[in-house]
Amino acid sequence: MRLVPSAVVVVTTGDGSLKRGVTCSSFTSVSLHPPIISFTMQLHSRMHRLLQSTQRFAANVLSEQQANYSVHFSRPFQDSSDVCQFDSIPHHSSGHLGVPILNDCSSVLQCSTHDMHTVGDHHVWYGKVLHASQNDTPPLLYYDRSYRSIGDETFIRAFETATLGYEEWTHEAHLRMAWNYLTLHGKDKATPIIRQGIRNYIDQNYGKVKNVYNETITMFFIHMVHTAIELTNSSCRTFEEFLEACPHLSDPQLLSHHYSLSRVHSSEARNDWLEPDLKPLP
């Protein structure tokens, strides 16, 4: 199931001053008429007991910028008089059901409890959707044990099918492509995929792409992105977080800090890996 992409949903509920949220698994639509959704939750959770009391909840579909919310609400939390699970999370109270709503989510479904069953080691909750809202922010996806965004999925698909416009094949696009493959496959498996992908893209855009394939440039960016991923301990859940944590990669002159033009554009550099002549690699 790890290879089936899924939306990342935080279910929230509240009863007076007591508020709780949890990152849930197996969120799905069950029925359109009436609109019924479902999600699962581990047995013996405090969230389960609170839901039994409130009989209402919100399903907050996280946006691609909210991976940290998923991590936050997946951690065990012990309520106290001084600390609330929502203290560091921007949210507001629903005007429809009075449950806490996370700000700036891709969409929010406010539900009343329709039914609940226990299956194996999980409770399966069913909710009747009473109110739905959405904005233009793409949702966060969870795929192969890592967070992805619709933007990344669309970008990689366009790159692999060579439908990505050449004007969009920017310095940042190179970084995004490398980050996606390296985080998904690791360096050893990603390197031949990146090499072949760039070659295919150049071949399919013959006449538009000014430069031919360059082995040194390709391996340089693979090295720089891979090194940055290791320095951040693979903690960045989205490409945007990664760039924010590693701003040096955004420098469009990054390559020229390490290579002279004559060396990096030589026929040797196009065909084989050449070490930098200006500044060693980190």
From TrEMBL:
Sequence ranges assigned to domain Flavin reductase like in this UniProt record: 1-149
Keyword Oxidoreductase among record annotations: yes
SUPFAM superfamilies: FMN-binding split barrel
Source species, domain of life: Eukaryota
Keyword Oxidoreductase: yes
Molecular function in Gene Ontology: FMN binding; riboflavin reductase (NADPH) activity
UniProt keyword terms in alphabetical order: Oxidoreductase
One Pfam match: Flavin_Reduct
PANTHER family to which the protein is assigned, alphabetical: FLAVIN REDUCTASE, FMN REDUCTASE (NADH) RUTF
Name this polypeptide is given: Probable flavin reductase
Species the sequence originates in: Geodia barretti (Barrett's horny sponge)
